[in-house]
Amino acid sequence: MRAVFLALSVLFSNSLSSVASAFQFKTVYCTISNNCECDFHPDLQGLELELYRNVYGQHLAQEAVSEALAEFINDASPEKPLVLSFHGSSGTGKTLVSWLLGRYLYGSAKTSPHVHQFIPTLHFPYPHRVPQYKKELKAWVEGNLTACARSVFVFDEMDKMPPGLIDVLVPFLGSSHVVYQTNYRKAIYVFISTAGEEQINRLALEARQAGRDREEILLEELEDAIAQAVFNKSCNGLYHSEIIQEKLVDCFVPFLPLTRRHVERCIRRELCLRGQCHRRDIIEAVTGAMTFSPERERLFSHSGCKTVPAKVNYYL
What we know:
Keywords: ATP-binding, Endoplasmic reticulum, Glycoprotein, Nucleotide-binding, Signal. By secondary structure, the protein is an alpha/beta fold. Helix content is about 50%, strand content about 10%.
């Protein structure tokens, strides 16, 4: 392959301009070698450890994400990109898991040029511009896949995504080998939303009332219910989406509502970051200021761990 690489280099340097040469050289080499991994250095063991250490109360998400990534990345020639959809109430860890995913695949989710995050209110704020957004999103994904087959695309706040826009990704998510002269099957897509939270929270409550341990809840109990809820929820970017109709999502990942114990762990983590791990008075004050439901049992936090940093700052 080294000889092919050098031969291509000579060919392009003699016959094309420098800009066109670089792009076409990369395209041809990637097609031949199928080895354009960018600076992709996955640390799956580190990711799994981090998920269990810092993502509280989410055994389903921990297991589903770890297993899906390991199976996908260890496959030298996957049949399709990996598509994950995260669902659950606010503050349960969905965005944190997506950030950790980028961090342990590329070393940094924030600075890697191959981890792309989209926020509807920032990138797609006007519903009447959906046709324009479709063209721009398609071009952006295509361009970044050409530059790096291992690109990661995270779509946060899917509840605020204009319906119909995300379906422009359908050609990129299936099992075809090449689209637009780019091998795109090694990419990873993550959708994040609160859609399906009612189904998830109801099952968690029913399990608790029936005396079942939280860890006894199985992924199979929730996946179909989440898919149906997402598909039928009108205020949601996946409403009646072809992505769901064509079964292009590999796993609907549920994030369970957090209990008081989980919230206390979040508070303690924030205190430790400030060098005050043992401030039990702050833990009790912050927990007491938070809202839990149902009203009588007060089992699950309304906002999960989302407001914990601000409340810790207030009480310190």
